[in-house]
């Protein structure tokens, strides 16, 4: 509770902050108004970005100067483009949402204006001019591109806070921000939007800054960003390689540097759809992405927050190209958790999905290391891990692969099965182990008896060694007493 209070106190906008500012795109004026936001310590915008964001910014106008413009249906068709421009300028005003009682009228005018702009684009009442498209993207940029508030561990200095337990920070300006995102989405998906024109404004710089916003703590914002970026990827073919590379870079930074990012799950959802559309034979670039980015995403601690989406992406690769199955399985074994039982349960579930799409040849390449690891899981004192590993035999396809390679598999896991039957504390695990043991016995009685004989020999030798060791200790103890 104390951490949450500290977090909110740091995120609250100071009373001295500017109530609202106005930066009409393409206009020039003498002064610049800067809205103070908390920063995550990222690099400041470059000169061209600063010029774009503050070009012609005007000082705070007196209250009441934002006029309520007529609706589009109330003016002549020829006047609508000019009215569209005037409405865009109203939406460039930025308001302070830390105090709900401030500038209530102006906030409502901006909200109503944004609703009208969204309806105008969505209805297709008229194709907006190139000049208006440029001004609209600048207005959208002014509203959505901002410094994100600091994460909770930056406020409190506590690095071990669990992101799943921590309450997300909800953007106070969401009533306006949501409509701005909706306007951008409608513009991107509109059949009237010409990609040749739009790509001048929705360029690489715009996409990169859009990707930066995926680190927002507000799940509503990330959901909009996910939908918009996916639509941009689908509509603007020229941006596709750049978007994939930029997402790669976010993953690399998350895996090898920060270990923290709020939007990994949403980015993986987009990639799941992209991977589904990969053509065959698969490009080497995509295979490298699997090996260098997706598989290492199993390493970070907060994997539970995005594992479902990651597992889907991994499975998509194997279903697209079954020859990648052994690469994926060996990658999972490389990052297999040693002491985190909940994470191990996730890994076994993902392993089952991958094995379901695996063919015999690829399966044979990784049998030995795979079933050595499964044997460890079978003997896990955490009953969910052992139970999940035993459930692999309930999958018909996996059971078939095991049956075909029983000569290799049974000798590896026989000892683990016997130990479970003899000493595992959980009754459910004990029962499942008996069923698996019975399956092997019915599958190949001769092989089972041979494994049983070898296990009995190993146990006898182990018992003999233990007796010798005990005898040596007794002799040493007697010698110590006699001395």
TrEMBL record:
InterPro entries given in the database record: ARM-like (IPR011989), ARM-type_fold (IPR016024), PP2A_B56 (IPR002554)
- Gene3D superfamilies xrefs: Leucine-rich Repeat Variant
Q: Which residues form a coiled coil?
A: none
* One of the Pfam families matching this protein, by short name: B56
Q: Which domain of life is it from?
A: Eukaryota
What family is it from?
Answer: Belongs to the phosphatase 2A regulatory subunit.
Function, as annotated, reads: The B regulatory subunit might modulate substrate selectivity and catalytic activity, and also might direct the localization of the catalytic enzyme to a particular subcellular compartment.
Q: What is this protein called?
A: Serine/threonine protein phosphatase 2A regulatory subunit
Organism from which the protein derives: Rehmannia glutinosa (Chinese foxglove)
């Amino acid at each position: 509770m104390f951490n949450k209070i500290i977090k909110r106190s740091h995120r609250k906008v100071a009373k001295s902050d500017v109530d609202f500012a106005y930066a009409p795109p393409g206009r020039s004026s003498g002064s610049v108004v800067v809205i103070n936001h908390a920063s995550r310590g990222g690099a400041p915008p470059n000169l061209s970005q600063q010029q774009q964001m503050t070009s012609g910014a005007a000082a705070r106008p007196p209250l009441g100067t934002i006029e309520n413009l007529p609706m589009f249906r109330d003016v002549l068709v020829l006047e609508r483009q000019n009215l569209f421009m005037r409405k865009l300028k109203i939406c460039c005003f930025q308001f302070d949402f830390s105090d709900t009682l401030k500038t209530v009228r102006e906030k409502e005018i901006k909200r109503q204006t944004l609703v009208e702009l969204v309806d105008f684009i969505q209805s297709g009442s008229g194709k907006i001019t190139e000049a208006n498209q440029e001004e609209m993207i600048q207005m959208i940029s002014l509203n959505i591109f901002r410094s994100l508030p600091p994460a909770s561990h930056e406020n409190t200095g506590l690095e071990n806070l669990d992101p799943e337990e921590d309450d997300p920070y909800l953007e106070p300006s969401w009533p306006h921000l949501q409509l701005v995102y909706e306007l951008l989405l409608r513009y991107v998906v509109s059949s009237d939007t010409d990609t040749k024109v739009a790509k001048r404004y929705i360029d690489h710089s715009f996409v990169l800054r859009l990707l930066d916003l995926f680190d927002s703590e507000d799940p509503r914002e990330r959901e909009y960003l996910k939908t918009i970026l996916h639509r941009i990827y689908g509509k603007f073919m020229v941006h596709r390689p750049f978007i994939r590379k930029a997402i790669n870079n976010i993953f690399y930074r998350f895996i090898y540097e920060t270990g923290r990012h709020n939007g990994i799950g949403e980015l993986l959802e987009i990639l799941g759809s992209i991977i589904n559309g990969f053509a065959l034979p698969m490009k080497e670039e995509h295979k490298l992405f699997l090996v260098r980015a997706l598989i290492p995403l199993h390493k970070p601690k907060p994997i539970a927050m995005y594992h479902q989406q990651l597992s889907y992406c991994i499975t998509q690769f194997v279903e697209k190209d079954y020859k990648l199955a052994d690469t994926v399985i060996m990658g999972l074994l490389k990052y297999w958790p040693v002491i985190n039982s909940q994470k191990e349960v996730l890994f076994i579930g993902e392993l089952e999905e991958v094995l379901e799409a695996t063919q015999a040849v690829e399966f044979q390449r990784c049998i030995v290391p795979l079933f050595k690891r499964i044997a460890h899981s079978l003997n896990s004192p955490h009953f969910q891990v052992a139970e999940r590993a035993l459930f692999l035999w309930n999958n018909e396809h996996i059971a078939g692969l095991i049956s075909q390679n029983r000569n290799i598999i049974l000798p590896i896991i026989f000892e683990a099965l016997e130990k479970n039957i003899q000493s595992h504390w959980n009754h459910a695990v004990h029962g499942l182990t008996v069923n698996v043991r019975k399956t092997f016995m019915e599958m190949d009685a001769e092989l089972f008896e041979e494994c049983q004989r070898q296990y009995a020999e190993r146990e006898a030798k182990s018992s003999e060694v233990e007796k010798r060791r005990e005898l040596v200790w007794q002799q040493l103890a007697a010698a110590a007493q006699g001395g």
